[in-house]
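Entry 14. Ran structure prediction on the chain below.
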Amino acid sequence: MLTERQLILLQVIIDDFIDSARPIGSRALSKKESLPYSAATIRNDMADLEELGFLEKTHTSSGRVPSEKGYRYYVDHLIGPSTKQNEVSIIKDIIQDGFFELEQIVQMSAEVLSELTNYTSIILGPEMFETTLKQIQILPLSAHTAVAILVTNTGHVEHRSFTIPEKINSSDLEKMVNILNDRLKGVPIIRLQEVLDTEVAQLMKMYMNDSNRSFDYLKAIFVSDHPVKLYIGGKSNILMQPEFNDVDKIRSFFSMMEKEDEIANMLKNSKNGIEVSIGNENEVEAIKDLSLITASYHLGGDHMGTIALLGPTRMEYRKVISLIRGLSSEMTDALYMWNRFND
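Output, structure tokens:
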């Protein structure tokens, strides 16, 4: 159990190190008005905090820096909510400024979050298991070409061009659209092929001419790879952090950022609420020198995606946690409004 004085000292040391990125010495701390203690008292408490594992000595200075254990205690016990709400309102204003597609909202949110923090932001888009088909339109472009417009419940709009088989007339095309909207609306994207192969195929045989050829073209439109959507902002921000002048660390980080599946798997396990993983608490080797903060956003009671920030362990935790909490709430509201508007 830390004494009240040690708690105050630990908070001041971590706050100072977050601001300066320089080791903190007892002499400098004794000059602070918020610490009315002698340099000897501060030095003894710092030694105790180091022995308890909350502080570490650096090789290049007599000062001390927070350890991962110190940061964990700081996050769990010493920081309260930020009083600055203007930054969260910036995100809110962007979302409410116009009625965008969800993808635009997510992309803008990732960019704004990275600009406000100078860290790397990652937003995992709505996962395909929760994403369902909302509406289908097929618009003829010419006698032999058309475009299929697919709209999901999360606001994702996709256009897929295809060639119309010669034996499919406009009447059959209209029947196809009616069958698709009747049978595929509300079906999870991940189950499209299953429903196409069963219910849709049977109906097309009943109501359409040359249904086999039409069905082959149909599968080419709907059955395709659906990669997880990742939106990244400020990928190069890591280069501005003084801790990362090590070329190997930078190479490892940028190599990981190219592996979207690995990042998505890392973020998919995010639970409700704010989660903070510091340094070696992270399972992915490339970010064991970083802190990862995540929060989820929802539609109704369903988890739709994850918001994340990657930065140094010397992260502005109070500010970042408030921003992510605010953005999670705003994105949940935006999803709700989009879904309500398009019902």
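The radius of gyration is 27 Å. Will compare against last week's run tomorrow.
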